[in-house]
Amino acid sequence: MAMTNSNPAIANIIHHYHLGSVILFRDNLIDSPQTVNLINALQQTRSNLPLFISVDQEGGYITRLRDGTEMPGNMELGATRSKQLSELVGMIHGYELTHLGFNFNFAPVVDINNNQANPMIGVRSYSDRLQLVAEMANSYIQVIHRYSVLKAIKHFPGHGNVTADSHLSLLTININQHNINQQKWHKFELLPFMHTMRNADAIITAHIVMPALDNIN
Fold it and tell me: How far apart are CA 153 and CA 30, in angstroms?
């Protein structure tokens, strides 16, 4: 059964082990009053500094707030080529998350949708065009920065070129078998991260292994 209210056991774990962050998922969030009460209760159990209360509020089918504004996914936004619409999504997410008590959003996705058989990214990506991915992501980030919400770009070093779900297994990607090499990775998969990391607060790594990148200088 999903946790929707804090309890003494959870409070003791957070306080005793000096936990610094909590992530909440859709099953933890029923409506706005319950979400605010839960987050406030969690914050009251901290041992010192305020907790990071995080969520994956990407929009589209990765939408955690049941009571929040339903937004299109990144692929739909990318299809519009409208940075203004991406800014609007950032504004709405920032406003709603801040007022609920969240201070960390694990978004936006800056992976390039370069493998149509990918079950993990797909419509979560803005595009298969790296420049468009970077532009739309930066538009989102720059506006949500106006609110007290940290944001994390994901999933480094690039999750768009896989054919299985990395939540179910640890994927080992042999770059050469996926028709790219280190040089192409530098010029393609890496660039959306390079173009957005200065504006982001954190970078989330993928649940994947790329042995060919281990010794890159």
Answer: 26
User: What amino acid is encoded at 155 in this protein?
Assistant: H
Q: Does pLDDT of 51 surpass 80?
A: yes
Q: Which residue has the tokens 């940075």?
A: 83
pTM over 0.70: yes
Which residues make Cβ contacts (< 8 Å) with residue 17, sequence separation at least 6? none
Look over the chain and give the mean of its residue pLDDT values, rounded to a whole number.
90
Count of residues in the chain: 217
Quick: pLDDT tens for 170-217.
777 766 555 556 777 888 889 999 999 999 999 999 888 877 777 655
Cis peptide preceding 195, ω within 30 of 0: no
Distance CA 22, CA 164 (A): 27
Q: Are 108 and 58 in contact (CB under 8 A)?
A: yes
Opening angle at CA 196, ends 195 and 198, nearest 5? 100
| d(C-alpha 76, C-alpha 42), whole Å | 35
Among 3.40.350.10, 3.90.79.10, 3.20.20.300, 3.30.1230.20, name the CATH number for the domain at 56-213.
3.20.20.300
∠10-14-15 over CA atoms, to 5°? Answer: 115
pLDDT tens-place string over residues 93-123? 999 999 999 999 999 999 999 877 777 888 9
